[in-house]
Automatic annotation (TrEMBL):
<keyword id="KW-0653">Protein transport</keyword>
<dbReference type="InterPro" id="IPR019564">
    <property type="entry name" value="Sam37/metaxin_N"/>
</dbReference>
<keyword id="KW-0812">Transmembrane</keyword>
<keyword id="KW-0813">Transport</keyword>
<comment type="similarity">
    <text>Belongs to the metaxin family.</text>
</comment>
<keyword id="KW-1000">Mitochondrion outer membrane</keyword>
<dbReference type="GO" id="GO:0007005">
    <property type="term" value="P:mitochondrion organization"/>
</dbReference>
<dbReference type="Pfam" id="PF17171">
    <property type="entry name" value="GST_C_6"/>
</dbReference>
<keyword id="KW-0472">Membrane</keyword>
<keyword id="KW-1133">Transmembrane helix</keyword>
<dbReference type="GO" id="GO:0001401">
    <property type="term" value="C:SAM complex"/>
</dbReference>
<feature type="domain" description="Mitochondrial outer membrane transport complex Sam37/metaxin N-terminal">
    <location>
        <begin position="25"/>
        <end position="146"/>
    </location>
</feature>
<dbReference type="Pfam" id="PF10568">
    <property type="entry name" value="Tom37"/>
</dbReference>
<protein>
    <recommendedName>
        <fullName>Glutathione S-transferase</fullName>
    </recommendedName>
</protein>
<feature type="domain" description="Metaxin glutathione S-transferase">
    <location>
        <begin position="174"/>
        <end position="237"/>
    </location>
</feature>
<keyword id="KW-0496">Mitochondrion</keyword>
<dbReference type="InterPro" id="IPR050931">
    <property type="entry name" value="Mito_Protein_Transport_Metaxin"/>
</dbReference>
Length: 297
């Protein structure tokens, strides 16, 4: 029998009709929804939760802490929350191979779109995280994500420094992957019949952000829409598992995405500049005796 103990799932907050802003958190919450695992969701958006927990997604249960989506899925399967249990051995092998394809071809496209594409990073996601996470953690995590994306690109293309060339390679690989997935899905409801599996979870987690997040530059939106059956898969999962997720944007007005970096002012930067100026003024006042009442001659 499945465990009746509550699991705690720590996630980055969702927005733009997504249950979470980044794919690993999306994978985790979607798997829990499909498996009907008893989870309490804690959003990683306050000083308290940021102090208590490491980088999401995290699953906490008894004395166990799972620190990424793969560990989370494996642990839930061990607790009898296995959405692949009805697959036969041949289907499981194919499912694993296709998930590896998704991970190797679509993940780089997502990372590039999120953090390497300059306008998307500086004009959009940076602003989103600045408003979602408390200072200074917002700076820490955005820098961390960008460094992680750069490391991934360098590991995939160690001899290539031209960002446009890397982008072309990544998009070509993503197109080949999406074509294979679309052919495998065909007219089916899900990849393996009438119930979603971990392959459906992986595809949704990487495809949905391309469709839903209104990036300033998002060529992958048009690429994904070349395969309507994959778009319909995303809609089907939304209707079944995330019907109450808000459709609008919580932190960024959609009309703001057209502004350039020069036109936008970071509230965090204003705070930092204000504190710096205040410190200088207080230091000057103390040095010259205005705070102690001793005015120098």
């Amino acid at each position: 029998m499945p465990s009746t103990d509550k699991f705690q799932l720590v996630l980055f907050e969702g927005d733009f009709a997504l249950p979470a802003i980044e794919p690993e958190s999306i994978k985790s919450i979607l798997y829990c929804k499909i498996a009907e695992a008893p989870v309490t969701v804690r959003l990683f958006n306050s000083y308290r939760n940021c102090a208590l927990y490491k980088t999401p997604p995290l699953l906490l249960h008894d004395k166990v802490t799972c620190t990424d989506s793969e560990q989370i899925v494996a642990y839930l399967k061990c607790n009898n929350f296995n959405i692949d249990r009805e697959l036969d051995p041949k289907q499981r092998s194919e499912c694993l191979a296709l998930k590896n394809l998704v991970q190797s071809k679509l993940k780089p496209a997502v990372e590039f779109n999120y953090w390497i594409e300059h306008r998307n990073s500086t004009e959009f996601l940076n602003i989103w995280f600045m408003k979602c996470l408390p200072i200074p953690l917002n700076y820490f995590y955005t820098g961390n994500f960008r460094n992680r994306a750069v490391d991934l690109m360098e590991s995939l293309y160690p001899n290539e420094t031209d960002k446009d060339v890397i982008k072309e390679y990544i998009q070509r690989a993503a197109i080949d992957c999406l074509q294979s997935l679309s052919s495998r899905l065909g007219n089916g409801e899900f990849f393996y019949g009438s119930k979603p599996t971990t392959l459906d979870v992986a595809v949704y987690s990487y495809v949905a952000p391309f469709i839903k997040i209104p990036f300033p530059l998002n060529e992958m939106y048009n690429v994904v829409n070349m395969w309507p059956n994959l778009v319909n898969l995303v809609k089907r999962i939304d209707n079944l598992y995330f019907p109450n997720v808000p459709k609008g944007s919580k932190y960024i007005r959609l009309e703001d995405k057209a502004k350039t970096t020069d036109d936008e002012v970071s509230y965090a930067a204003i705070v930092i500049l204000t504190l710096s100026a205040t410190s200088l003024i207080l230091g000057f006042a103390y040095k010259n005796g205005y705070l102690t009442g001793k005015i120098p001659d």
